[in-house]
Specification:
The protein is of the alpha+beta class. Helices cover 35% and strands 44% of the residues.
């Protein structure tokens, strides 16, 4: 599956637009991670615990978006974007979305 943030895949031609596909992941903070994050907040620097949490959420959202595109018979997803939102205190959603397309190699 070709996944790009651009509106076209270089060297490919979109033959059919299959519509919007999306994937999301909602993650809650963990008490142990929060304690470590508070220590890092005092000392300064990257909060590795939250970076890892967000990275895992992004990967899961991408995987779910790709699954939805595969179910439609897509060869690629163009115009991919990410969005986050707070769902409740201590929990956030990572949303990934784009347009599923059928591709034909340009010669």
């Amino acid at each position: 599956m070709i996944v790009v943030t651009t509106e076209h895949v270089s060297g490919q031609q979109e033959t059919t637009s299959l519509g919007l596909v999306r994937g999301s992941s909602i993650r809650a903070r963990h008490l142990g991670r929060d304690i470590m994050a508070q220590f890092r907040n005092i000392a300064g620097g990257e909060v590795h615990e939250y970076s890892k949490l967000l990275g895992e959420s992004r990967e899961q959202a991408i995987d779910r978006m790709i699954e939805e595109a595969e179910a439609l018979g897509a060869d690629g997803i163009i115009g991919v974007r990410f969005q986050t939102s707070m769902v409740m205190q201590g929990a956030a959603e990572m949303l990934c979305y784009g347009t599923a397309v059928k591709l034909e190699a340009a010669f």
